[in-house]
Write a structure and sequence with these properties.
2 domains, 7-stranded antiparallel β-sheet, PH_bac, alpha+beta, PH domain-containing protein
């Protein structure tokens, strides 16, 4: 009987932890929804791809805080993705989530980084695109299947960050 009660207590604590994480994520999303600008919608015709790579969309963070993940909508969800640079902007086509669009005029630059939004890799394991929207700075992280293309992305996007 003691084991059953102990097992139920551990299960209850685990469920309480899950509820707390879910509640915290929802509270963050509500808080950010009022403070962040609307994210741009992908255009019907984004243009032809100048650069393209596949991998995983890691997330988007606010400003210089690599841990302050954007939770609004489905922007905070990791997903397999294709990253495309067109003459009009950067398109992140995510599997199981909406496409994300960064207009070229909003792009500040790109860099490689070790971590972003709770994802930590080896040195230069992530490609990070920095962009600004209505005065707010964002970093969008992408872990490519082929990390050799990061140098091209950084060079083409200016490498200003």
């Amino acid at each position: 009987m003691t084991r059953v009660l102990l097992s139920l207590a551990v299960l209850a604590v685990f469920a309480l932890c899950l509820y707390g994480m879910w509640h915290g994520w929802r509270a963050r999303a509500r808080r950010q929804a009022g403070a962040l600008p609307d994210f741009p919608r992908p255009p019907a015709e984004p243009g032809s791809a100048r650069l393209e790579t596949t991998g995983v969309y890691v997330g988007t963070t606010i400003g210089d805080d690599w841990q302050d993940r954007v939770a609004v909508g489905d922007i905070g969800h990791r997903a397999e993705a294709t990253l495309r640079l067109t003459e009009r902007g950067v398109l992140v086509e995510r599997t199981g989530a909406g496409a994300m669009w960064i207009p070229l005029e909003d792009v500040v630059g790109a860099r490689t980084a070790r971590g972003l939004a709770g994802k930590v890799m080896s040195a230069d394991g992530l490609l990070v695109v920095r962009w600004r929207r209505e005065g707010q700075t964002f970093d969008t992280g992408f872990r490519g299947d082929d990390k050799d293309v990061y140098e091209q992305w950084v060079r083409v996007l200016g490498g200003k960050v």
